Amino acid sequence: MNPDITRERENATFNVEKLTHILDGGIEKTKRRREIESLVISDPDFQSEDLNFLSRSERYDAAVKKSAQMILKLREYGISDPEEIYCYKSVFRGNHQEALGLHFSMFLPTLYTQCNKEQFKKWVPLAESFKAMGTYAQTELGHGTHLRGLETTATYDPATQEFVLNSPTITSIKWWPGGLGKTSNHAIVLAQLHTQGKCHGLHAFIVPLRSMNTHIPLPGVVVGDIGPKFGFDEVDNGYLKLENVRIPREHMLMKYAKVEADGTYVKPPSAKLTYGTMVFIRSMIVGEAGHALAKSCTIAIRYSSVRHQSEIRPGEPEPQIMDYQTQQYKLFPLLATAYAYKFVGQYMNQVYHRITGDISQGDFSELPELHALSAGLKAFTTWTASEGIEVCRMACGGHGYSRCSALPDIYVNFVATCTYEGENTVMMLQTARFLIKSYQQASAGHQLSGIVSYLNESERRLQPQSVSSRPTVVNVNDLASLVEAYKLRAAKLVEVAAKSIQQELQKRVSQEDAWNNSAIDLVRASNAHCHYVVVKLFAAKLGEIGDTGVHSVLSTLALLYALQGIQQNSGDFLQTGLLSVPQLSQVSQRLKELLAQLRPNAVALVDAFDYCDEMLNSVLGRYDGNVYEHMFEWARRSPLNKTEVHESYHKYLKPLQAKL
Amino acid sequence: MNPDITRERENATFNVEKLTHILDGGIEKTKRRREIESLVISDPDFQSEDLNFLSRSERYDAAVKKSAQMILKLREYGISDPEEIYCYKSVFRGNHQEALGLHFSMFLPTLYTQCNKEQFKKWVPLAESFKAMGTYAQTELGHGTHLRGLETTATYDPATQEFVLNSPTITSIKWWPGGLGKTSNHAIVLAQLHTQGKCHGLHAFIVPLRSMNTHIPLPGVVVGDIGPKFGFDEVDNGYLKLENVRIPREHMLMKYAKVEADGTYVKPPSAKLTYGTMVFIRSMIVGEAGHALAKSCTIAIRYSSVRHQSEIRPGEPEPQIMDYQTQQYKLFPLLATAYAYKFVGQYMNQVYHRITGDISQGDFSELPELHALSAGLKAFTTWTASEGIEVCRMACGGHGYSRCSALPDIYVNFVATCTYEGENTVMMLQTARFLIKSYQQASAGHQLSGIVSYLNESERRLQPQSVSSRPTVVNVNDLASLVEAYKLRAAKLVEVAAKSIQQELQKRVSQEDAWNNSAIDLVRASNAHCHYVVVKLFAAKLGEIGDTGVHSVLSTLALLYALQGIQQNSGDFLQTGLLSVPQLSQVSQRLKELLAQLRPNAVALVDAFDYCDEMLNSVLGRYDGNVYEHMFEWARRSPLNKTEVHESYHKYLKPLQAKL
């Protein structure tokens, strides 16, 4: 064990294990999680070469191998609870992706929820035994978030009782679905349903892609890998071009909407029924943001405690880089953010499960709020976490750039969340739509409840108009007071956006153009709303914590999170008159004090995330802090070192020398 | 040609070609650049598979091949002017790196400037004929920016008149030098010189690494590749462990410092002589920031003009995504930034050459200012450009994540500049040291000249103290007035940092701790200083432009750049009383107008950068806008598509199915 990091651990003022239990949701959950993790770690089948040393085809091969092993192991161990499967996967995936990911996350759940009884009986056993390996093909080459724009057609032919599927244009080629390129032999294809000469919009169809015996693509199915990406090297994201592919009528998923044998279309009872999965996945991503940032902070903070560089005082030994104020200022607010997002993720999970219960009882009342919240928070947390991962990487200096740090892998695999499952700016505008609607309702005299109740007329009237007209009441040392300030900032910025729309309308532009001409303000309002929600939920979490030591250090983190957000958005807080100029100087001063206060607990705070070395897969983030010897050992395994002299010397350099 | 992009070009209000000449530095330079580019483009030897489809070893192989070809071609065409070589390389490298990069950029220049006459006669011909292929080995596993911390030793042995080189610890292993792992047979090694029982600090030595006949590493030389990185896959960044490696005394570079046969050490005449290269490389990086961002904007803006998505008005066709205000708000300020950095790069280049002239006359007076400016601007521009590239990538939605967009390549290869050639935060603090020193000189009554003259006492006394005590004079529609505002902000933030240091000193902490405890403020001050310099230089450039159409569009860009900087740092401008709250609303409004105003010129403004398709290597950024058919064509070439059924199906999936 590196003595520096040992000393850090000795200096901690709280019980790390207790904080781990809080993050896991209880001592029993920690225990079970560790049991499952050790199943993977101790399994010789999962010991493999660092994926970074392999070619893309080898990486895909290794991922398929691992997925196939995992399926057998999960059965062997009798693990079937989704949370436990998720936990198992988190370790075995490390910072990479799973080859059969979409079979689990989209193909199976769609079959479970959208098959009618006969379909369920046929398809679920096929899928559960992996005879049918599937993916979910929605996005097209020219069409993403805007579903109405999708072009793939499924035209019903009553003569044969079949649907004929087609990709009528280049832009209609299905593009991006994970596992579509090489792995899947089936896909759930989203297509515009045409029957009896009429288009009824998007519906889901089970389309066989490859022979279940030979795996060779079926006639009319042009399928393949879309090529290398920023990350996800292990995954065969694919394309699919359908050329008059005929499937039986029963391949349309018919739990809700139906096409009868003669071609008669039967509408689904509610459009909201397909809403749920999307909301669930976005909620999950919020937790993933906390996860990715927590891993990154673990690596950067551990490395900062063993890395010595430059000098603060001449003649003295080089200090740990964590002693530099600038390093603390980079990393500790991100550490606070990671905790914040982990807690928000827990909250979203709880709300989702509660509301899902309501929905199954036919109560959709809370869905719009959850939909708006999950959209905005997905965008808010993935943007900030992505930036934060890169800050962590660069805080490791040059070595962060090496794949041995794991930070490049964490970044490229996480940053995809900013553009998938709803592009972030579009997400922010969806939340804004809910905020503006709520604002208008409140203005019309409705009393709002829930998280947007701050938009109520009565509350708004209590808001500050400007610095001069009222005394400043925010106390920068009091978290509750800061939550209030964030709330008022959100209220103010929603109002600014609403007024921008009004002003545009007064110029006699259309409603739609007024919206687009106010889009910058709308995104800003959503952002402030989400920021408020995060600060509020972090503060609320503190109320649940009994242990004094843990409560104290989390309170410091929460205060740091809130104050740093104010400093970074100081223009908003000054502009809305919520803070005065002298108070902002106070904020800066207080931030520096909090950094110093957190310094002795930094390593313990990342230890509490409890990522084993096998999950981090980072030489810089090793628990024992023995970084340099392992970097050397890792480098020697680089494929370029397999031979002393690379063949290119004989092929190009020696001939070059001969010619000059 | 895609009709959307044709229409964009028709709508431009200025002459694209004239703007290209300004960016190149004159019509003749444009002509010559295009001649050189066409040499590469038309050369069948440079047509190769997309590097993204290859394994790392294949990429290295391809890069060595290309470099060897390039060396022969440059001789064949008689291209020897450094600027022309740079231009040639820019095309042939595309978004990737060159295998022999450090031989050109560090090995040869060091030989040119630090060899004495005899050494020059021996080594320069060897290096120019590539018999000696070299790199520059400074950074060590445990030591980066802080040169005094380097541990490699060169101990003089008068008995044999040799230096004995050693890597005494794990942390002293040389790490990162490009071309060190497999390519080079020599390195200039920086080591602590020991002679006659005394250490004389860092000196440079020519160390043979591999046999010039067989390329096999020499005895005592442990050398290899450091493994895969975020980018730079083509480069064999290497490690080097020296175990009692003996080199003749004449292998120490002796133009300035010397060790005589008996071991007597002779000091160099000035320590500043090695300063120049560092300053030059950092200045170059500023231009590279403009370059990388300009490429990214070209891709994102062209794609935004042909990409249709969602709807603004219901029932109408999907609009070009460039019509969304949020998209304009992401991209146009970055476009303005790319122009700004290109102009700053031109300026730095000119200043460097002027000052180099002075230095060769023995006049070092301007060097500290240039050193401080190049350090800060390197950090300021690389940070913002890196973030900007990612914004451009994400503005392309999901497709930006594909390697076919080229944006991942541009990002990973550029972002390394944030941590190499001086880690950015350290760079900012170096600039801050200069600013604080200047501030203290001014406070002591000295009259400062040059770029920091705004810190003079007399000027500072004219500055605003707070909103209430003086009328606001900034005119948000006038660029000159905004330059003034940026200047006053910088002055104010330098003062804040200086006062923080004073306050710390009053608490009786040491000078060094006071500095560290004010580091956040110091970085903030440097940042404001650099921002001021960029705005000022952009404004100054406008004065050189005669053409009305070009002047008009560049003025709009400059104003956009300045106003967006104010909006993003509105806290600073409010806090220092430079702007009032109503003025900030004006800024927001004005920004929206400028976005709309730039909209018709956006494509023309990126066309003016004049990157040929071969340099961009981006399917999304194609000049003809025919994106989707080429994406499909590119994807089909993916190595995973070489076979219809990937071998992993037979190896893992079929057996899995059999077991379930």
Give an overview in words:
The structure is a homodimer of 660-residue chains. Chain A is an alpha+beta fold and 660 residues long. The first copy, chain A, has helices spanning 3-10, 16-24, 27-41, 56-77, 82-93, 101-114, 117-128, 275-306, 325-360, 367-395, 407-414, 424-443, 457-461, 479-506, 511-516, 519-542, 548-568, 570-575, 581-598, 602-607, 613-616, 627-636, 647-659, and strands at 134-137, 153-157, 162-166, 174-175, 186-195, 198-208, 221-225, 238-242, 245-248, 258-259, 265-266. In chain A, strands 1, 2, 3, 5, 6 and 9 form a six-stranded mixed sheet that branches. In chain A, a hairpin with a 5-residue loop joins strand 10 and strand 11 (265-266). In chain A, helix 9 (325-360) packs across helix 16 and helix 9 (325-360) packs across helix 17 (548-568). Chain A is globular and about 90 Å long. Chain A starts with a helix and ends with a helix.
